[in-house]
Design a protein that fits this description.
The structure is a homodimer.
Chain A (H helix, E strand, L loop, with lengths): L8 E6 L1 H5 L1 H7 L4 E6 L5 H10 L2 E3 L15 E3 L18 E3 L5 H17 L1 H9 L21 E5 L3 H11 L4 E6 L9 E6 L3 H7 L2 E4 L13 H6 L5 E4 L8 H8 L6 E4 L26 E3 L10 H18 L14
Parallel strand pairs in A: 1-2, 1-3, 3-4, 4-5, 6-7, 6-9, 7-8, 9-10, 10-11, 11-12
Chain lengths: ~325, ~325
């Protein structure tokens, strides 16, 4: 409020993405916010000092070995997934909110991967570039596939699943979904059920898109048994988290005609300072021609941070004003 | 009509695709149709004989050197484009109909090409396969692009343009179009104008999709002058006909930062028995990394012929019954 004598709100930004976007965030906030930053190079003592003052923290991870944060009343995640947060290690009365905005990029990635599987632009281009007309309508070569009329099964029907379904509807696919909580099907979804209908979804789908949160309930949801329910011609897209799929079972299916292919954006191992070039999995997925593999980037687009920082700024303003927060995470424990 | 003493209707199928689909067509027609076929290996005399009897011909080309077809009252094209038809060489009172159904495959191809330009799955996959995490959100590498919010300009708004626009709408693009005849914009199209608004469309578009018929009006519609109207960052998709674009001007733009890239499915030279491996253009487009090139196959999908043959069967039935034909082509000359 104008003229309010209330002190500045102290916000600590932790990690590469929040710190890189500090000025963008500042430009969307008033002078009543003090924005501090911390990256590992600043050292542990700096983290201890800055966390002492912080009333709100913007960070993607919170573990039990974090220094005390006695004044922290908001943990604002700069992303959607909260599998990096140990909720039991947070101070009492600390709210947690996340942000989305990545569903646009992820949905575009999913449709791109599915269309590439149907059409095969990559290999059609390579063949024609070498000079062969073998794939042409003109010489009546073999036709390529269509997305129209195919069945796409969505595992998870949150922001991402809904963004994918909206785009698929325009392609006249048959789209079905399973999700944690029973809900009414939206327009364009043939059916949506709870997780107990997963086997049915897997049996019917030409494409299975994983877009659920990782939790003990979804860990290894796709395993030898559930993979066996899928059509051998089916194609798997994982934009959820690596461990939703049993790595060995997936590799076995991809190398034994159990599954026609997969687009994988999420993995089992991630780079660290110690191992910047770590392989993303124990199995050599990078040797498989029927895999499209990307290093966790599906939602990481040039429009993402502008949208995310706007949402975070709005939430910090609400936090300071004592208003209702956007995207609160109601953590009720797992299982 | 049952019990009708009318004689059988004699239909001649000419060319690889109609002849290959003869049995599928027969399965959709009654016994009152006699289906003959002709391919070049059958020889010219066979063509003379079979055309004498034919009341309907299914063929993609009709030139002035065709033998007489005195009984022919329907030329049914097994495709959409009628640039292979010399209308002045047809017998009097011969109706001409075409078929579509390829707009589904072509629209999927167009969206796939546009998404590949935005995301770049091909190169992201290649980099990660080699072991680098450089493009990952995790290491805060450079983000990729989004289709959402981009402006797509459609040149031609017939079956193909409309099918593309329907799919793009789900991606929240801004879609604009120019077409031969003024029409009201459909839902999801920001504006649609006549061809005189082409410069405006080119100036505004991030993607330009050519989906018009080839005619003297559209020959070299995209040339040095109109290419200069486009943003240097713009991307061109040609699923119309090669000569809608001036080949030399396109090659110059692609090799001089005049245009960021192109997806080309239609060409300037096509294979023949004499030159089965002919290069599709005089310029070496196959050497350009910013081009995706395919040999005229965008609409040639595994679902195409089932749909087309159903339409052709329905039209032959209407022809025999004297009913109104589907997709009649009203040829009024060019210019």
């Amino acid at each position: 409020m104008p003229g309010d004598a209330q002190s500045d709100t102290c916000v600590l930004l932790i990690g590469a993405h929040p710190v890189r976007n500090r000025d963008l965030l500042a430009s969307k906030l008033g002078a009543e916010f003090e924005l501090n930053t911390w990256v590992p190079d600043d050292g542990d003592n700096a983290l201890v000092d800055r966390l002492k003052q912080a009333e709100a923290v913007v960070a993607m991870r919170w573990t039990s070995d974090m220094p005390p944060a006695p004044n922290m009343r908001l943990l604002q995640l700069p992303g959607a997934g909260y599998d990096g947060i140990d909720f039991t290690a947070l101070p009492d009365q600390c709210d947690v909110s996340n942000v989305y905005e990545h569903e646009i990029g992820i949905a575009e990635y999913v449709v791109a991967a599915i269309l590439e599987r149907c059409i095969g632009l990559r290999s059609l281009d390579a063949t024609f570039r070498k000079g062969s007309w073998q794939d042409s309508l003109i010489v009546a070569g073999p036709p390529h596939g269509e997305l129209s009329g195919k069945t796409v099964g969505l595992v998870g029907y949150g922001h991402i699943g809904q963004a994918v379904a909206k785009r698929l509807q325009a392609f006249d696919t048959r789209t079905i979904a399973v999700t944690r909580r029973q809900r009414e099907p939206d327009e364009g979804l043939e059916w949506v059920g709870t997780m107990d209908r997963l086997p049915e979804l897997l049996e019917q789908s030409d494409f299975v898109v994983l877009a659920c949160a990782l939790s003990p309930d979804t860990h290894h949801l796709i395993n030898t048994e559930t993979l066996a329910r899928m059509k051998p011609s089916a194609y798997l897209v994982n934009v959820a988290r690596g461990p939703v799929v049993d790595e060995d079972a997936l590799y076995a299916a991809l190398t034994s005609d159990g599954l026609s292919g997969a687009a994988l954006d999420v993995w089992y191992a991630y780079p660290s300072d110690e191992e910047p070039d770590i392989r993303p999995a124990r199995n050599p997925f990078h040797e498989l021609p029927n895999v499209t593999m990307t290093p966790h980037l599906a939602g990481y687009t040039d429009g993402l941070w502008e949208r995310r920082i706007s949402t975070i700024a709005d939430n910090l303003r609400r936090f300071r004003a004592g208003e209702e927060l956007r995207n609160p995470i109601e953590w009720v424990g797992f299982g």
